[in-house]
Design brief:
The chain contains six helices and nine strands, in the order E-E-H-E-H-H-E-H-E-H-E-E-E-E-H. The chain is of the alpha+beta class. Helix 4 links the parallel strand 4 and strand 5. The protein is globular and about 35 Å long. Its EC number is 1.11.1.24.
């Protein structure tokens, strides 16, 4: 995993609408909560996404945008987002290239990991949390860190 204090790797990926998301462009506007999750519509991933949804306005007030990343395709992200009313960005990391850039570990060598990073507007990682079995702690931890960051935008 990448650690607090490291520079976050820049990347481009397609979002659920088929538009290109560029991390460093988004960082010009807000801090980014970048969370990697295994798969749309699984129990833990749905709980995590819905928790981010329920706290989304708090994240926005704290100066951050929430961005979820999995290897699911764009159509799967569209369905998942619509089904659960997700107001934030979902990115399709087909092939796991960005997951590898961010050193997101696999569980048992098979299951894509669940890792959350808070990246400040300077592109520096301020929080890194890894837990496949505690999806809701990703949300709470990220919020705690964001509330302590100075707002620059």
């Amino acid at each position: 995993m990448l650690n607090k204090g490291e520079k976050a790797p820049d990347f481009n990926l397609l979002d659920a609408n088929g538009d290109v998301f560029h991390l460093y462009d988004k960082l010009k506007e807000a801090s980014v909560v970048l969370y990697f999750y295994p798969k749309n519509d699984t129990r833990g991933c749905t709980a995590e996404a819905c928790s981010f949804r329920d706290q989304y306005e708090v994240f926005k007030e704290a100066g951050a945008e929430v961005v979820g990343v999995s290897s699911d395709d764009i159509q799967s992200h569209q369905k998942f987002s619509q089904k659960h009313g997700l107001p934030f960005i979902l990115l399709s990391d087909n092939g796991g290239k960005i997951r590898k850039m961010y050193d997101v570990p696999r569980t048992l060598g098979l299951i894509p990991g669940r890792v959350t990073y808070v990246i400040d507007q300077n592109g520096i990682i301020q929080y890194a949390f890894n837990s496949l079995i505690k999806p809701l702690e990703h949300v709470a931890g990220a919020l705690d860190v964001l509330k302590s960051l100075p707002k620059t935008a």
